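User: what does the whole thing look like in 3D?
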Amino acid sequence: MATAETQNATSGQPKKRGTLTLRAREARLAYMLVLPGLLLVLFIILFPMVWNIILSFQLIRLGDLSSLNLFDFSNLSLDNYVVGIGSRFWQGLRVTLIYTVASTTLAIIIGLWAALVAREAFRGRGLFRAFLLFPYIAPVVSVAFIWRLMLDKNFGIVNAGLGLEGADAVGWLTSRSLPVSIFGVEIGVPIALITVILFEAWRYFPFAFLFLLARIQAIPEDMYEAAQVDGATPSQRLWYVTLPQLTGVIATLFLLRFIWTFYKFEDIFLLNGGAAGTEVLTVQIFNWLFSRRNVGVAAAIGVILALALMVLVIIYNKWLSTQEE
Amino acid sequence: MAENIQQRGRGFSRELFERRLGRILKWLSILFFILLTVFPFYWMLNLSFRPFQDVLTNPTRMFPRPEDIQTVIAPLSCIFGGDPTFCESAIRNSSYAAVLIQFNFLTFIRNSLILASLTVLLSLIIAIPAAYAISRLYFRGRQAMNWGTLLIYMFPGIVIAIPLFVFFVRIQQTIGVQLRSPVGVTLIYLATTLPLALYMLGGYFRTIPIDLEEAALIDGATRLGAMWRITIPLAAPAIASVALFVFMIAWNEFLYALLFLVENPNAWTLPLGLQQLDSQEVPRTFLMAGSVIITVPVIILFLLFERFLTGGLTSGGVKG
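Assistant: Here's the predicted 3D structure for the full assembly of 645 residues, as structure tokens:
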């Protein structure tokens, strides 16, 4: 329908100004209304995005920015990609994928649990729901610092509460590997990575909780009643009535959170700066840019992440349109 | 229905058993979740009132001692003047006073307030007309715009940050405009929150019956007049939630503030100021006082306007 109308609108264009058709005038008004936003996005997002691609083929260091010529295409090379995609990149990609999949899954599971708890009214449910959103709405800088102090090796409440003192004290965010013996076999647990995953799940389960709660409350009551008449117990009603209704929302949530977590920077940067085996790709970009002062390589990894994002967004969009049908 | 269930002897007892078990599990879970989400914030408050030395020696102390609270509130007596030497040391020893005065958090509060409010104001000015156009008017490229909105919404901050950084440095050198400043950061916040605003406002505009506007058009109103007098007032709840979200996003934002404001301490926002406080010379408990200062306004806003915010969270899904 929209295409027919826009065609209609353009066919009216050639007429004189005063006699523009209603559709053409409407289109002109629309362009005026979207113009400021469009310019802003062009200037702040689209132009830098394109420039990022050019930067990724130029050999630029942070100190060279003053002598940089944007339109100098004489020294384009693939070196940034060759340097950037080394063993460190693959390690970063591996860490990013583990971090993203694990924390997304965990956040959804905890969110589902919370949503099931809050599904039926109880005294103080409003307050309960509000409390549960605290981790999500609080500024990332403060929650990262709170957990850093709680998890501190020497004076953190977590170690103290668990009675881990002296040699037993665990560096939750600072040790790459913690030897743990299971049935007499000593294995190294990637403790810092696990801790940032748990932090991420803590911070984002409220998001899953809200989505799932809204969906659960939309399940018609008579479905439960019918199941109860058929003799289904509460656990069976949960398993055969509630959960099947949630698969669509859970898949949507997974995709959405996967994308956002994949590109998360601040959380790990503030928790431990990507130390001890937690250097995800976004932190790696930052380190290339400001520790190694290599703009070109940072841009090259940025381009790769942007391409991956395009694919993810297309998948997400496809998924959403199948859901709406 | 009850008789129906009672006819099945075994089903009834299992039903009853599971209900009881469910109730116990439910209350245990409620307790667990409240502990999980509230305790860290309680701990922040607790640590913010205690001297760091005491935290080192008694890491599990659950409440600040009365004398600790005394130390923290001591500078209050200096508001209306007092012995300067006493006041100076009182401020140095009180976590909150030290953070606010000695470490310039008063300035950062002002900066954050200005930056966030300005972003909200400009964001509404830009987004309301654009959202109206996208949801109500037909024009070529509308579909492309919907697509672009989604893509930009998803676009990772760190990837944009690299070229923006280079770009802003170049702009300063070629035309002398310093965008590594609150102005530049405001522009970035505006651009990155625009998709959210468009999405939420556009969605709401679509729910307002078009007949109302058409009636106004027949009565001789212009399209803009109809938008201004009819659609915008009716969309007040959506506008309020967009304003709140944009405010909170700008208030909480860290990455762009770090990249573009770090060289100019007078322009630091609260999150950047707090992160910069993180050094060995500053007692860790002062960090918690700073965290309280940033977090409390957000939590109060959230509790006051929870209804607007949770609706927006599930309809648009605020990026985070």
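In plain terms: Chain B touches chain A through 101 residues (CB under 8 Å). Chain B is about 80% helix and 0% strand.
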